Amino acid sequence: MTLMLNASTLQAVLDMRSAVQSVDRIFGDLARGTAAQPTPSAMAVPSADSSFIIMPSVASEQGLASVKLLADIPSNAQRGLPSQRSLIMLADHITGGPLAILDGKVPTRIRTAAATAVATKYLARPDSTVLGLIGAGALAVAHVEAMLCVLPFTKVVVWSRTGQRIAEFSQAVAGHGLEVVAAPSPEAVVASCDVLCTLTPSVEPIVQGQWFQPGQHINAVGARPRPGEREIDGIGMARSRVFADHLGTAQAKSGDYLMALAEGSIAADAIAGELGQVVAGELAGRRDRQEITLFNSVGIGALDLAIGRLAYDRAVEQRLGQDVDLSS
């Protein structure tokens, strides 16, 4: 039987603290070789602006093989639809039996925030207390929840293009006991935070590297996996010690990296390594209090696998989801 898990069920069974722990573990597994993460491939035909990205992974500790089919469709904005939609399939890594099919929206949001939290745990100064957010949507709310799992933040400085979005964000995070300050500009956010998260679908750089402060940690998260889109300019990439979620994915799809490289701001070997190497103790993360570190989060299938394992187990325990016999 194959378990079908919709968005509402996934929202019910997943919690952020467990997600952060699962993502931390899978990053280390990638470095240790008990999980495999190939570079994702993309497919497109000229009759539409749609691109379909295949994001596979396999992990022995989690006992799974997984694949996410991510549809990246810029013209969906004109249809009133999300520009990105996805499905995740889980299979037993020994027998190949199909275990579950998941709607991708909730797992993607949660694993993205969890990955940022893991990067912050290993790369930020441990005494960081001020979190800066550029963007105030649902992903920003998830980031607050995730970041509180790894560091004792007391204040959030946030910028958005609309006051309404700031008000909705403030209400959504009110239960965490944080001081929330609305900043007048992205530059003001950067000037006042210890850890920065960029969470916008920006095409042109919304953050300039000349704003970075010594000792800051930056999480570049929001730009879609398109080589021509980025949130951080070339100076920012050059001033930072950069870590990737997966080197091959960053080299294929990270506009932050590829555009800085094309401009000559950085060399091809500008990425210090993968986050998993830091988690596994194979590579030093932050080397001193003054160093600027940057996590280039593009998104990888192994994170979907980790969250899928968690969601599947919880749904089975709670008897949620719909079983379907696909072989009948």
From TrEMBL:
<dbReference type="InterPro" id="IPR023401">
    <property type="entry name" value="ODC_N"/>
</dbReference>
<protein>
    <submittedName>
        <fullName>Ornithine cyclodeaminase family protein</fullName>
    </submittedName>
</protein>
<dbReference type="InterPro" id="IPR003462">
    <property type="entry name" value="ODC_Mu_crystall"/>
</dbReference>
<dbReference type="InterPro" id="IPR036291">
    <property type="entry name" value="NAD(P)-bd_dom_sf"/>
</dbReference>
<dbReference type="Pfam" id="PF02423">
    <property type="entry name" value="OCD_Mu_crystall"/>
</dbReference>
